[in-house]
Amino acid sequence: MPRILPGETDIYALTDSRLALGRSVEQQARALLSAGVKILQYREKHAHAGVMLEECRLLRRLTLEAGACFIVNDHVDIAMLVDADGVHVGQDDLPVREARRLLGPDKIIGLSTHSPEQALAAVEAGADYIGVGPIFATQTKEDVCAPVGFSYLEWVVEHIHHPFVAIGGIKEHNIVQVVRRGATCCALVSELVGAPDIAAKVQAVRAAMRKKA
What is the CATH number of domain 11-212? Predict the structure, then answer.
């Protein structure tokens, strides 16, 4: 199974059908994977459980064919049923240690963090990687906390020797600011799935990331 962590690849893509210009989850996934995205997270907050299960079964097959890592947002049960590579949970979701009891030692568990205290606790709890953000204001997630800006990102780079992905309002036009502060992997949602040409946007984002020097 593909075990790819942030830092081993540059772009961490998430699905979101509300922002995808009418594209289905399958269409989003096929476009992202064909563009070389190696970590794909299924995040469909408003889908029914049965729909999520079938969509995740499909994405599991597509990511295996592409040699990409497949992460399910929040739903540990669905991740287990489709044999996903792992899950990503938030501060108010199932705790990392409990998710680990269900998933076992080999699956990836990512945890969103918004402060140094949460980052340290995530590492202590056994998270395989942490989400760092939101870096900028974002409207792609409901009930999101205020942007943490660059200060928390810079703290993580200096103090946390653990895989992490920067997330929150990251776009082609501002990603270079994030990379220059030490992020090697960035999560993008609307910038990718909401682009008229997803593959072209992936390449443009990669080009922007290389401008850090």
Answer: 3.20.20.70
**Burial class (CB within 10 angstroms; exposed 0-12, middle 13-18, buried 19+) of 137:** exposed
Per-residue pLDDT at 137:
85
Residue 163, judged by CB atoms within 10 A of its CB (0-12, 13-18, 19+), counts as middle
Angle between helices 116-125 and 96-103 (to 10 degrees): 30
Contact 207, 32 (CB under 8 A): no
CA triplet 110, 98, 157: central angle to 5 degrees? 30
What are the extents of the domains in the chain?
11-212
C-alpha distances in angstroms, 145 versus 132, 140, 169, 185, 196? 12, 12, 12, 21, 29
pLDDT tens, residue by residue, 76-120: 999 999 999 999 999 999 999 999 999 999 999 999 999 999 999
**Is the bond preceding residue 147 a cis peptide, omega within 30 degrees?**
no
CA distance 40 to 26: 12
pLDDT digits (tens, 9 = 90+) for 11-21: 999 999 999 99
Catalogue the active-site residues: 43, 112, 141
Question: Tokens 């290389």 appear where?
Answer: 210
Residues of the chain short of pLDDT 70, as ranges, are 139-144, 212-213
